[in-house]
Amino acid sequence: MTAAPIRVMLYSHDAQGLGHLRRNLALAHHLAQGLPSLTGAPVTGMVITGLAPGEGFDLPEGFDWLVLPGVAKGADGYEPRRLGVSRTELGLMRSSLLDAALSSFAPDLLIVDRHPYGVRQELRDPLRSLKRRHPRAKVVLGLREVLDTPDALAREWSALGSTELLRELVDHVWVYGDPAVHDLVDTGEAPTGLIDRIRFTGYLAHGRSEAEAQVEPYTTPFVLTTAGGGSDGYDLLLAAAAMKPPIGHEHVVVTGPQLSDEEFLSIAAAGGSRTLVRRTWPGMSRHVADASAVISMGGYNTICEILSTSTPALIVPREVPRLEQLIRARGLEQAGAVDLMRSQDVDSSALGAWAASMVGRQVSRAHLDLDGLAAVPRLARELLRGPRLIEGRVA
């Protein structure tokens, strides 16, 4: 008798950048790959996102997308990305869609990225309904290893309201990092009502390429500059494009798909004959590994791609509107994993000098816990122990 599939859903609001979606997609691939051997059951699932997935976003077998009407960060908070409706209408629409999906799909495991109740608490009532209708469903809050300053997080967690309700709805908290580098419990960033449910997974580093398109290697030695989704990387990208690549190397600048057309053209115009500027480059994990050196902002996913390699890396963290990237870069610099340059010190000469000094070198990061993607299926199996009630049958 074939075991009933384990049903998995992964939610992210995706208001800014691609980081939440990329993280959940990597998790989906490793759950689909790892859980069957641990449980004897296949996996099927849905990735819930507020972005229409583009090139290079491949789902694992048995998974599908649920794309919600998009939200974007505006000056006064979250607002509709495209729809001509009010914030209230959009929130009700998204919450209703989430409720219908959770109710009908009845996941055994729901992983919520970063915000336990989603945008403007759109997920709170659907979670309550899920727990009422399917009490065996397990809900995991997934957190980056660095969030922000403790004061900022205290305000954020307080705004969620009842700690008792939060504990009713969230079964585990998975922190995607190495506490030896940064421990958000010690720093005061963790939600106090859920500290006893925290599990550190390690960085989601090794194995990320399995969630990416397979690509041909770049045949010429090159230095790589990337700014993730690109929505806030213009200054770094412009300075990098204008730098002189190291002798014998080309320079590939990947702006990200969310950079405006005007900004992209400006960056492309700044590059010389040995600099190639492109919006996207599928298979980024492979390219980071193949590069002679990498210049990057300090977003979580790009950092994980870097940590899984021995490629020298210079991190230029964003410092507004939150200090997450600076905190991450400082911790990794102290651990000997990356170099750090503050944004006020960035210019083409400084970037070029760093790159020229790094090509031909390698950086060992073996002392870090980089196996979070392998740990997550084991943590999921721990959480799902016991019978699962699916479509009226015990599986």
UniProtKB/TrEMBL annotation:
Signal peptide: none
InterPro entries, A to Z: Glyco_trans_28_C
Keyword list, A-Z: Transferase
Pfam families per the UniProt record, alphabetical: Glyco_tran_28_C
GO molecular function terms noted in the UniProt entry: hexosyltransferase activity
Every Glycosyl transferase family 28 C-terminal domain range: 252-350
SUPFAM superfamilies linked: UDP-Glycosyltransferase/glycogen phosphorylase
Name of the molecule in the record: Predicted glycosyl transferase
